[in-house]
Amino acid sequence: MHPISSKMAVQKRKERALIRVLLERCHGLCEDCGKLPDWRGLSKHEKVFRSRGGDPLDPDNTEMLCGKCHARKHGLREL
Q1: How far is the C-alpha of 1 from the C-alpha of 15, rounded, in Å?
Q2: Is the pLDDT of residue 78 over 80?
Q3: Please, are residues 22 and 64 in contact by the beta-carbon 8 Å criterion?
Q4: Where is 24: in which H helix or E strand?
Q5: Is-contact 25 59, C-beta < 8 A?
Q6: Contact at 8 Å (CB) between 18 and 11?
Q7: Is the pLDDT of residue 4 over 90?
Q8: What pLDDT is stored for residue 77 in this prediction?
Q9: Which of 34, 16, 26, 33 is nearest to 64 (CA)?
Q10: In Å, what is the CA distance from 72 to each residue of 22, 41, 42, 47, 76?
Q11: CA distances from 44 to 15, 20, 25, 36, 38 (A)
Q12: 73, 63 in Cβ contact below 8 A?
């Protein structure tokens, strides 16, 4: 396993802290539909993507979504 840079280690710590904040905020429920997640769990979704100037570590720019809602936000159909 390759060691990670100190910059990447700081980034990972910030991301873990953000996910803790987001999980406390949503109480384990999808922030879009309000339901418990299915087997896929919850995932972090950026409202404004990095490529469009969004901050991936800003709690106001991120939300926790279930798999179904996350797929829908990205325009993907579920099978």
Answers
A1: 21
A2: no
A3: yes
A4: helix 6-26
A5: yes
A6: no
A7: no
A8: 82
A9: 26
A10: 20, 15, 14, 13, 5
A11: 10, 11, 12, 15, 15
A12: no
Enter the tokens of residue 45. 């979704």
Look at residue 3 in the predicted model and tell me its pLDDT. Answer: 84
Token pair 């280690």: residue: 9
**DSSP code of residue 73:** H
Number of Cβ atoms within 10 Å of the Cβ of 71: 14
Six-digit token string for 35: 């339901």
What is the reported pTM?
Answer: 0.83
Name the amino acid, one letter, at 11. Q
Tokens in use for 51? 């490529």
CB 4 within 8 A of CB 12: yes
User: Collapsing DSSP states into helix, strand and coil, what is residue 33?
Assistant: coil
The structure tokens listed for 26 are: 């949503």
pLDDT at 79 over 70: no
Strand partners, 66: 42
